[in-house]
Amino acid sequence: MRSVMWIRVVSVMLLVSGCGGEGSDTAVAFDGEPLALPENPSEMGVPVGVRTEEWDGLTVEIWYPASDDTTGDTDSVNFVDWIPASVTALLGDVTVPLIDTAAVRDASLRLAESPYPVVFFSHGLGGTRMQSTDLTVHLASRGYVVVASDHAGRSFPDLLPCLFTPPADGCDLGALVGVDPGIADASRVADYLPTAASEGFLSGVIDPERLGIFGHSAGGGTTSNVLSNDPRFLAGIPMAGADNVTRDVPVLVLAADCDATVPLSSIQAAADAAVQAQMVTIAGAGHLVFSDLCELQFGDLYDNYLADREDLSSFFADTLLALGTDGCAGYPPPLPECGDAWLELEVSDPIARHYVTVFFDQHLYESGDGVQDGVFDQASLTLP
User: Fold this and answer.
1) Which of 47, 70, 248, 357 could form a disulfide linkage to 107, CB 3.0–4.6 angstroms apart?
2) Which of 126, 121, 129 is nearest to 77 (CA)?
3) Are 81 and 38 in contact (CB under 8 A)?
């Protein structure tokens, strides 16, 4: 059963210079495509496109609703592309599993009369802008434009060279000791949105004033701080990590109760301190439940390329190994109360997609019933 969510998609009018004489304009109409969405918020909606752009010197990935006639192979993320040359020189050719997505690279944009809201995604420590495509692609399929960037000093290519003693060229741990780079990146994207809305491929189809943010782990801290200090962001979702949000703004805190990386108590404390926050906790899930990083099988990468090296920084490598397997099949939870296995990702992924969707629908589209308790047996809601 599909319910039709008409986002006032009728046509987009472009004014182009005509041939009828100096100063004359000709209105050219482009028929929009209805945004007909499944009733279940965790199900994919319309086709999705993805493209890489430079926004005022910042490399961003953009996921967006695509036309119904979209064809072609869907995009795959190869984390080998993020391995610096200095690390390849030490390890040789490295192979990691591809992360398949449901987006088609450079697909035609789905035209809409009512511009799409924009959501910025902030990745965690050792991640990249492509680390949570299950969520970024899903939101785009539901009528959002999602933008993400790599954060200098906490991204995958910045941390990999730090695994060695001495560190390889390019090791950058600046985000661990300095100012959160995600905050500046979010601000740069917000600064550029009016330009993106008036020129380029998103011209006329995004609304810079309907802006949200969500982030994972350290990106949850970024999300919290951006929500506290930048009024351009109307709502946000810290996931598997959060700081106090001091501004009166809607917040949905997403957490996993078997997270061995960020204590649930600290996330709960941040949610309790927020002016208006809801918190959903997924039972039995680990830290990486809100990302695609388990698909990289970091434990195998460690065993195949790092474990026997004499130049390995064992403390740092062990820390990243624990982070990179927190929530992944084959690595039992280190918390005794969590038993022998994590909640399967096939169960937790739809839960994350559901709550991210209904929250942003409520606060950026002003539609739907918002976050509700009792939707999933494995998820519990803490009310404000």
Assistant:
1) 70
2) 129
3) no
